[in-house]
Structures are given as C-alpha cells and as structure tokens.
UniProtKB/TrEMBL annotation:
SMART domains the record matches: HTH_LACI (SM00354)
Record-annotated HTH lacI-type domain positions: 2-55
InterPro entries linked: HTH_LacI (IPR000843), LacI/GalR-like_sensor (IPR046335), Lambda_DNA-bd_dom_sf (IPR010982), Peripla_BP_I (IPR028082)
Keywords in alphabetical order: DNA-binding, Repressor, Transcription, Transcription regulation
Entry annotated with the keyword Repressor: yes
Organism this protein belongs to: Phytohabitans maris
Domain of life: Bacteria
GO MF terms held by the record: DNA binding
Pfam families in UniProt: LacI, Peripla_BP_3
Record protein name field: LacI family DNA-binding transcriptional regulator
Lineage: Bacteria, Bacillati, Actinomycetota, Actinomycetes, Micromonosporales
Length: 331
C-alpha cells in the first residue's frame, strides 16, 4: 500500500509538499498537479480516520530554528526538550536555514499533524505566516520577535543592551575606528544588535559619527567576506563588533589570512560559543542565555495550552558581556 513518501518520490516533491496538497494549503499549480497525478497513479488515499484522530491533538512539539549549525540553537533546543519531557511531549527539530519557503513547509506539517505547539525562530518578520496555526488553536511561541502575521508569545535576549555593552567596552579600551558586522537587514536580532552598536557611538564622549557597518548572513563565510572588505577599505577599522559567533569565526579567519591578530584589531562577538575561551587570544563575547530562552519558550507553550485566551506576552532575558583577551587593547 502506497504511503505519503511513495507519493512524494513519484511526484518529485517533498513529503511536506504532499501534506500541504492533501490539507488544502497553498502550493504552486504545477506541484499540486504532480502530487494529485501521483496519488491517482499509486492509488493513494489518505487515511482520513487517522488524520482526524491526529487533528484532535498530538504529543509532539515542533521546534523550527534558523540554523542548526549555530551553537545558540543547540543550547536552546536542550532547554525546550527538558521542559517538554516534563509534559510527556516529544520535540521535532526542523532546520529552516533562514529560508521562508522551507519554513512554510514545516509550518504546514505542524498544521497537518495538529502539533501540541510550535516554537519558531522566524525566517522573516514579514513572510513568516503562523495565522493558520493560531486559527487551529495550536500555541505558537516566537524566538526574538513576533512575526508580523500574528502577535504571539515571544522570548528574547536583551540584544540591544548586549551589543551596546560590547561596543562601549571597545570604546573604553581606546579603539577609535570600530566597525560592525551584522546580520541580514530583515533579521530582528540583527536590527537590535546594530541599534546597540550605534547607540554606544552616539553616547560616547565625544559622540562618534558614521561608523562602518557591513551586512552579512550570520554564517562563517559571510563574516569572512565582510571582514575582508573592511580590511581592504581605504580606512580599515582598528576594532570590530560582530553580531554572532559564526560570523566572528569568519572574521577571525580573514584577519589570520592577512597575518593580523587581536587585539591589534580588537574583536568582540555576540554569542558566547563554547570555543570562545579556547581560541588564542580568547574571544570577548556577549553571553546569551540560550538554554533559558528555550526553557521559557516551552513553558509558554504549556501555559497557553492550559489557558489559550491569555494575552500574548514577551519575556526578555538579560545578556552578559564576557571580556577576554581579543578586546583588551595593548598598553
């Protein structure tokens, strides 16, 4: 007997796309036609009784993250899982790769399976659409910021304050040309961290104007390219604040390729990865409470399952600057 995976293979699409077609979600006409043709060819008929039972409720919590390679999300997932287990819930981890289309497919699966809840790090503030989940009574909790499609419970770290602290530290160390490597313009976290960086410049004595800013993709190669462009510019920085740890690794690699080392060029990063204190010189970093963010998000899901009419709430957890050798300016 054919199943959804057989249909997906015959149609040349993902199982999530088959699920979207069977549940009436939006897909391209071509994909819908291929799925329905494959269903007819294989004699596939959805088990509507089983689907109906699934839609009553499930014991699965969906965790949709932006980048599985980022250690932040590893710690966050552990926090989610530890709380979920207390409620006899399993956690399904979905890596959206900051891709709104891939994220939408995972959201459709969550809807089709009527998951117990969804915790999501939105791929896009404008494109991430959780309205169908909300409409079906599935609790949704966002990491960093609620998407524009619906106001939902949100858990975040105080990113602006953390970036402000890191930049102010570089200023206090005597660095004069401090640049920022930040994430995509549509990322809420990148926006908040850039705000902290710029506020520290405005509030310095005397105020500093028009610091260099490079936008990248929150990944190692993006950090490398951004740092290389800064170093090759007419007025290269003497310090840089990097808004996540993966880009910081790329920025350090770009420096090493030019035989440059911190703290001759000061470096501070957002996200205190496990390797931050292992590299030489050790990397000054803003610590995010990733595990606690995951725990808080899962607790909000459980709370909303018990009381779905609560007003959406936002939990903001503090950050902490860990000063190490990469930003201590030589005397």
């Amino acid at each position: 007997m054919a199943n959804i995976y057989d249909v997906a293979k015959a149609a040349g699409v993902s199982p999530a796309t088959v699920s979207r077609v069977l549940n009436g979600a939006r897909v391209t006409p071509d994909r819908e036609a291929r799925v329905r043709a494959a269903c007819a060819e294989l004699g596939f008929k959805p088990n509507r009784v089983a689907r109906g039972l699934r839609r009553q409720s499930s014991d699965v919590l969906g965790l949709i993250i932006a980048d599985i390679e980022n250690p932040f999300f590893t710690a966050l997932a552990r926090g989610v899982e530890d709380v979920a287990r207390t409620a006899a819930l399993s956690v399904v981890l979905c890596n959206a790769d900051d891709d709104p289309e891939k994220e939408a497919a995972y959201l459709d699966v969550a809807l089709a399976e009527h998951m117990a809840g969804v915790i999501i790090s939105p791929a896009s503030m404008t494109e991430t659409d959780v309205t169908q989940l909300i409409g079906k009574g599935i609790p949704v909790v966002a990491i960093d910021h609620s998407p524009e499609s619906a106001q939902v419970d949100t858990v975040a770290s105080d990113d602006e304050r953390g970036a402000y602290a890191a930049t102010s530290h570089l200023i206090d160390e005597g660095y004069r040309r401090i640049a920022c490597i930040t994430g995509p313009r549509e990322s809420w976290a990148a926006v908040q961290r850039l705000r902290g960086f710029l506020r520290a410049h405005r509030e310095s004595d005397p105020p500093r104007r028009r610091p260099a800013v490079k936008y990248a993709d929150f990944r190692v190669r993006g950090g490398y390219r951004a740092m290389a462009e800064l170093l090759d510019s007419a007025n290269p920085p003497d310090a840089v604040m990097v808004t996540n740890n993966l880009m910081a690794a790329g920025a350090l690699e770009a420096m090493y390729d030019r035989e440059l080392r911190p703290p001759a060029i000061g470096v501070a990063a957002f996200g205190d990865a496990f390797w931050s204190h292992l590299v030489r010189p050790s990397l000054s970093s803003v610590h995010q409470p990733a595990y606690d963010i995951g725990r808080s998000a899962a607790e909000l899901v459980l709370k909303r399952r018990g009381n779905p009419d609560l007003d959406p709430q936002t939990v903001v957890l503090p950050t902490r600057l860990e000063i190490r050798d990469s930003s201590r300016r030589p005397s």
